[in-house]
Amino acid sequence: MDERELKTLLDEVKSGRLSRRRFVQTMIGLGLTAPMAAHILASAGVAQAQTKWTFNPTKRGGGGLVKTLWWQAPTLLNPHFANGTKDQDASRIFYEPLASYDPDGNLVPVLAAEVPSPQNGGVSKDGLSVTWRLKKNVTWHDGKPFTADDVVFNWEYVNDPGTSAVTIGQYRDIAKIDKLDSHTVKLSFKTPTPFWSAAFCGPTGMIIPKHLFQPFKGDKSREAPTNLKPVGTGPYRFVDFKPGDIVRGELHPTYHVANRPFFDQIEMKGGGDAPSAARAVLQTGEFDYAWNMQVEDEILRRWEQGGKGRADIVSGGNIEHIQLNNTDPWTEVDGERSSIKTKHPTLSDPAVRQALNVLVDRGSIQEEIYGRTGIATANFVNAPARYVSKNTKWEFNVDKASQILDAAGWKRGADGIRAKDGKKLKFVYQTSINAPRQKTQQIVKQACTKAGIDVELKSVTANVFFSSDPANLDTFPHFSTDLQMFTTTMTQPDPQRFMDQFVSWEVASKENKWAGRNPTRWRNEEYDRTWKAAEAEMDPVKRAAHFIKMNDLLIQNIVVIPVVFRPRVAAVSNRMRDVVQSGWDGDFWALAYWSKQA
Amino acid sequence: MSKYLLRRTLISIPVLIGISAVLFTILALAPGDPFEELATNPNVPAEVRMNLRAKFGLDDPLPLRYARWVVSMMRGDWGFSFVSRVNVDTLILQRLPATLIVLGSAQLLAVLIAIPIGTYSALRPYSFFDQAATTLAFIGFSLPTFFTGLLFILLFSIHLDWLPFIYRADISATGWRWYWEHVRQAIMPVAVLGLFQAASMTRFMRAAVLDVIRLEYVNTARAKGLSEGVTLVKHVVRNALIPVVTLVALQIPTIFGGAIVTEQIFRVPGIGSLLIASILANDTPVVMAVTFIFSCLVVASNLAADLLYGWLDPRISYR
Amino acid sequence: MAARVTSRSVPGGLAVAASEPRSSLWRETGRRFVRHRLAVVGSVVLLAMVIAVLVGPLVWRQPINEIDFKAKLKGPTWSHPLGTDDLGQDILARMLYGGRISLAVGIVAMLIAISIGTAIGATSGYVGGTLDHTLMRLTDMFLSLPGLPLLLLIVYLFRDALRKALGPEVGVFILIVAVIGGLRWMPVARLVRAQFLSLREKEFVESARSLGAPPLRQVVRHILPNSMGPVIVAGTIDVAAAIIAESTLSFLGLGFPPDIPTWGRILYDAKDNLDFAPHWAIFPGTAIFLTVLSINYIGDGLRDALDPRKVLGK
């Protein structure tokens, strides 16, 4: 799909012939993200719908205790040090960003008075600045007022390298922040920045109070007592925190949204595993909400029948995919395996890649393993019919794979394994330890065996697989096997960050201690050029066209084999109301609006 | 005996130092990274991760890191967790009550079950009682705790809805209710763990009593005219206790760090789950602190056991 | 043993005792074993299981990893006598295949733990003094080692080397039994030592000593048989523990690959479907239980056979 076709789609939305939601879904199907689609719509002047809450209370509080369960326990409460979504979610009970992303990817103002846009003058035409107007009458939990000084401070805090804040990536493009008045700030970017909402929005945009953190910038950042006793602007005040175990909060009486929150206390317990957490909500009702239910859908459905709770599923940007190595993991060059100086002996043959692509039984994987929690994909889902291209639909066909391989000269040997020029089709396929993933591996292995490809399965414990340890061969950046499979963890609203996994200068290698973000080690000039063009392109439609082209390049060259879309799944008690999950933000993005029937 | 005690205590110090050096080396060499979650996050630039590693001294040479650790331990600074950025001793102290309550009770339960049942089984070997007890004991330790734990949960929490299965260290109730709530939620983890350990301990007790009961001095005692009860207690059980004492001494340190699966299933915030979470997150300061306490307990319990042998069987002497 | 020697001795004693033919002693032991009914039952059951896992896969031809979604989670039927799991794979075939590994791991790891433990404990308890001290401090150190990081480290260091030298399956097997057995010998050592400390001073040992028996003879023929009680119990417990430990290792990615259906692994996979498909868990659980039970009775039989002061009058 190119720019012209995109513009046509936009016109259909404006004239009402295509719903906003379908447009967003189409964009996702093409490899973009919902927030990006929302940006496109906003820049085209298409109005966004507000999320409607079913319950509008007339007074604050009175709802009692809400109990939530995370099977990875939070270990710290400073959002700028968060190690994973668990810490971000725990911080979100107390802290808030300027704006959040709703399920459709729209920005919803929280601490901002309104969302900046080209129409209201908040976003400059040249893409070099954004002006945020802050909400007035917002107070911190200790009573001090929230002002523009706090926003400026957060940027200074994060930018100080001594702080080692993990959120620094979102703030690096800002050249300076000007305080225009007590409740207005203007962010100036170093270069034209199309995706201007990276800073201060979503889970990485939470704002901490200047008056408490000022003495603890830079190297002293770890000593701040408020790291463990947060004072924020959020709906709940801090009560207690035991790292690795439990977080407790109580209602904030001067919260800036009238008549909210509903609950008087909140508890976030951590630990254990996903299935028992699901049981606690769906079977015994001991808890009201449980995060990230990585459980087979079949089992969830059975438990839902008890009538106590349901599995709430919302789509996000995560794609479970199989990566194919472009280099040779079994040959060592200068002490490095999968070196860029080598080429993979068998996977370099496009026929082999094509065969593998049709050997992944996405249908069964979706139906039997993931169910509602995984949607089979080849990156073209829910697209209006005329945009579906013939060779980008997914299919599963063992015979076709055999034909492709036969035609390319890969003949079966005496042991049933295909070979050509003395090279056998034998692959080692690794992933992290996770029951649905192991089952997926088995399904793929079985199909491959039928087609004459020998697959050895390997599973690595998650904290090693996803580690950045330069000495460990089992990490995914090292990629010491032929195939590997996983999903990226935290949500990124801007596809720029997702797509840089395939640019040639990010190739993971010994030189950069395998910190490069391109594990497949694929290099393609056209892709590199298109990526660079997208980085500077201000017109959201043109930019989207670039991303679609990049996605097409990936799919046509079969750099990765997408398996299923992984929406977010939470277990929610049936008595809870207005618990709306957003795939582009944390679970607690709308915590203030949660309520429960008596 | 007191000379022996003194000698042993003095030797413990270099032993503990040696053990801590080995522990530290193993932890330093083991694969994994405390900042792994950041690796998959595209928004975290590589420099931040490298910076964090350097800040916590992860890239320094091994002997230097060890020396630093020893020095801070001696000053009473148990270290700073990479993951939660909190002092390690705070973390440990937070977990201590739950550990002592749940795991301590489980141990006690195990001993209280094992000694009488094991003894009685041995007195009437291959009787119906013995066979039943044996079979139950076998079922007990053939099934892993993750399994029995789940069975209990299915039965008592889900089917019968009698007991909560998620442990909460802080219950906001007062007086009687507070005690009652704590007992209610502790019953299952204590039972699962206690029964598992009772199963093996019963078998050991039975074997030990069987061994002792056949020895001549028991017959001598009976021939002397001592009543069965006195014979039993003063001669049989006392001597049979030797292996049991050995076992209990071996188990005491495990209260501290070993009941990982049970803590995981019931979400008991004990030191065991702290240990496993820290190991998986490569939070070396916490792991070092906990395993060091663990090794002190090991050395101390085995010393206590050795002293007890002398009291239980006066003929045992230490040459 | 002491009783027997005395009863058969004649004045001028030791010479006669020393020239006893070896074979009749063993035959005597064998006869005593066979008289222990439960030990015989245990041996038969264990033998049956070993034969089943060795020969079974050749007879029962259902493939272990044939994924058939239409047949998932079904109870026992004629075509699947033990039912199917959630991918539709046949449980009987998987148990027969995985049983080889589970039994082998269980028994070999147990033997390693028992041999090392008994050797160290016996030496320590008998010799005493500095040697005892050193060995026991070594034991303390091993007891303090945190299992998990050590496991991760060892597997990480040695897995590839072993894999290259011995092939993936054998290499992993050796690694696993070494690691499981190597971390379970300490309790055995302490128990055996405790027994030795106490038995060393008992009368029958003193009499053997005064008769001039050398230390090794004292240990092997007098003290050791009487210390077997706790060792046998530890042995049976270790088999179960080893089978389960292997599944924990697999769960952490350190053992056999996740698609190899060892009994512990099947049990672990089955746990979330317990309320719906209990058959999946009951069969591996029972298999482990029977293995442990039969080894225990065999152990009981062995102990009674080696010791003249029999427990049963039957």
Q: What would you say this structure looks like, in words?
A:
The complex is a heterotrimer of chains A (about 600), B (about 325) and C (about 325). Chain A has about 600 residues and is of the alpha+beta class. In chain A, strands 7-8-9-1-10-23-11 form a seven-stranded mixed beta sheet, covered by helices on one side. Chain A has a six-stranded mixed beta sheet with strand order 15-22-12-21-19-20. A three-stranded antiparallel beta sheet of chain A has the order 4-6-5, with helices on one face. In chain A, a hairpin with a 2-residue loop joins strand 5 and strand 6 (about 185-190). Chain B contains 13 helices and no strands. Chain B is globular and about 80 Å long. In chain B, about 50% of the residues are buried. The mean pLDDT of chain B is about 80. Chain C is an all-alpha fold and about 325 residues long. Helices cover about 75% and strands about 0% of the residues of chain C. Chain C is built from 13 helices and no strands. Chain C has helices at about 1-10, 15-20, 20-35, 35-60, 90-125, 130-145, 145-165, 170-180, 185-200, 205-210, 215-250, 265-270, 280-305. The longest helix of chain C is centred in the middle third of the chain and has 37 residues, at about 90-125. Chain C is globular, with a radius of gyration of 23 Å.
What are its keywords?
heterotrimer; A: 598 residues; alpha+beta; 17 helices; globular; B: 319 residues; mainly alpha; 76% helix
Which helices and strands occur, and which strands form pairs?
The complex is a heterotrimer of chains A (598), B (319) and C (314).
Chain A: H1 3-14, H2 20-29, H3 34-43, E1 65-70, H4 85-92, E2 99-101, E3 107-109, E4 129-133, H5 148-159, H6 168-171, E5 174-181, E6 184-189, H7 210-213, E7 236-242, E8 246-251, E9 265-270, H8 274-282, E10 289-290, H9 297-304, E11 309-314, E12 319-324, E13 332-333, E14 336-337, H10 350-359, H11 362-370, E15 375-376, H12 398-407, E16 411-412, E17 418-420, E18 423-424, E19 426-432, H13 435-450, E20 454-460, H14 462-465, E21 483-486, H15 495-499, H16 525-536, H17 540-556, E22 560-565, E23 568-573, E24 576-577, E25 595-596
Parallel strand pairs in A: 1-9, 1-10, 19-20, 19-21
Antiparallel strand pairs in A: 2-3, 4-6, 5-6, 7-8, 8-9, 10-23, 11-23, 12-21, 12-22, 13-14, 15-22, 16-17, 17-18, 24-25
Chain B: H1 2-29, H2 36-39, H3 46-55, H4 62-74, H5 88-123, H6 128-142, H7 145-159, H8 175-213, H9 216-223, H10 228-257, H11 260-266, H12 271-280, H13 284-312
Chain C: H1 2-8, H2 14-18, H3 22-35, H4 37-59, H5 91-127, H6 129-144, H7 147-166, H8 168-182, H9 185-199, H10 203-210, H11 215-251, H12 263-270, H13 279-306
Helix pairs in contact in C: 3-13, 4-5, 4-13, 5-6, 5-8, 5-9, 5-11, 7-8, 8-11, 9-11, 10-11, 11-12, 11-13, 12-13
